[in-house]
Amino acid sequence: MTTTQAAPSTDALQFPQGFLWGSATAAYQIEGAVAEGGRTPSIWDTYSHTPGRVVRGETGDVADDHYHRFREDVALMARLGLTSYRFSVSWPRITPQVTPDTLGPVNPEGVAFYSDLVDELLAHGISPSITLYHWDLPQALEDAGGWAERRTAERFGEYAEVVAAALGDRVPLFITLNEPWCSAYLGYASGVHAPGRTEPAAALAAVHHLNLAHGLANAAIRRAAPSARVATTLNLAWVRPEKPDSVLDTEAARRVDGLQNRVFLDPVLRGTYPADVQADTAGVTDWSFVRDGDLEVISAPIDVLGVNYYSPTPVRHWTRERPKENADGHGDGTASPWIACDDVEFPTQHGRKTDMGWSIDPRGLTELLLRVAREAPGLEIMVTENGSAFPDTVNDEGRIVDSDRIAYLRTHLAAVHEAIEAGAPVTGYYVWSLLDNFEWAWGYSKRFGIVHVDYETQVRTLKDSALYYADVIRRNAVPR
């Protein structure tokens, strides 16, 4: 049989047929209703209510009130033409009485909320993608040691099976974890994220137990929902030595790449931990938390690898001749997330930046997608987060003219297209984020959404970037 394909448009970058166009959110950032429907506290409830932790003392108590307004929000997604929506399930809604030793009873109200959301999405022709963990660990588990303890990973596997059993008949893709780097290092080493600990050994234990949690959840989803696909999402860094011909800068890049990228990629893709990372951190921990059989569990095949990318990560050797620069984009904690990297610094970058102070360089997205394609040939890849914060304002006409965000989207979508043209099997893109929301330790001071939210009235307004993205989706192409 002969198939005839339409000639590609010369004025646009065409994406493959069936490419998923989505947007992403996270439960604690948008849901609100933190004490409704049987939900119990998470580490972010505790952290955000601790004085001095979050800008202006803001919390996710109400956020975007998505818990009550999800039908309105799904209607917005449909208006934009989204073909997929990535959202996270709040673990404290599903098993609110979990303890380190037992998952506890399943909360029917929590399951019903997400079941209704899935049904609403499907009714609008939007494919749901579920993230099982986007940082809101039940506080009861943190009270017993959190991700530094193996039992947390064991309970997570059980929780994953509950969610997959309840929703797997309608959800085609489950993402086990979102950015375990942030959970481990920002939560347990630098303390700028919940639970706010500054314990390097606990952070490295958390790295392993998060990896193990992924593996246990992968197996649980396969059991409970055999037709569903399984993914994990990593915030891989495009790590670049400031001077590529410098041996010391190259060594600094190796160490940062090991902590950020390879300590997650290698266990999942190859069933090993990088020997150099273990050697670099031997003065912090002996890695005895890795038990026989763990790596086999972690490295069970996945169907999709999610890649989150926002900004490049240039590094250099710190000579100690000047004050150390720490422009890594991860806040100003009293401790560093970069364990055993005392002589590594992150130089301040010049040029265009987002409202987060993050440099804009779409080349990093292309490079990371091609790296994954090289390291895991044939593994499907999705861009599960990419976006930008800018200080949006509503003009006199009630319009949000966010041309900086449109430029960011255009160049990064072009970078995805370039990777696809070079052979990377990228099948979807999720803009971060659908809605302005609670931006973790930044509270409501940073706006990533393509939909503006007035936090006083909860009125949603499509920004110009939302209209631009809707046009991209309609065309399945990015205007040149």
Helix content: 25-40%
Low-confidence stretches: 1-9
Question: Which structural class matches the secondary elements?
Answer: alpha/beta
Principal-axis shape equals globular
Describe the structure.
The longest helix has 25 residues, at 200-224. Strand 11 (380-386), helix 14 (403-421) and strand 12 (426-432) form a beta-alpha-beta unit. 38% of the residues lie in helices and 15% in strands. By secondary structure, it is an alpha/beta fold. The strands form four sheets. An eight-stranded parallel beta barrel has the order 2-3-4-5-6-8-11-12, surrounded by six helices. The protein has a three-stranded mixed sheet with strand order 7-9-10, covered by helices on one side. Strands 1-15 form a two-stranded antiparallel sheet. It has helices at residues 27-30, 43-48, 66-80, 91-94, 108-123, 139-143, 150-167, 180-188, 200-224, 247-270, 275-280, 294-298, 363-375, 403-421, 464-475, and strands spanning 12-14, 20-24, 84-88, 127-133, 173-178, 229-234, 239-241, 304-308, 313-317, 344-345, 380-386, 426-432, 451-453, 460-462, 477-479. It starts with 11 loop residues before the first strand and ends with a strand. The chain is globular, with a radius of gyration of 21 Å. Helix 3 (66-80) packs parallel to helix 5 and helix 14 (403-421) runs parallel beside helix 15.
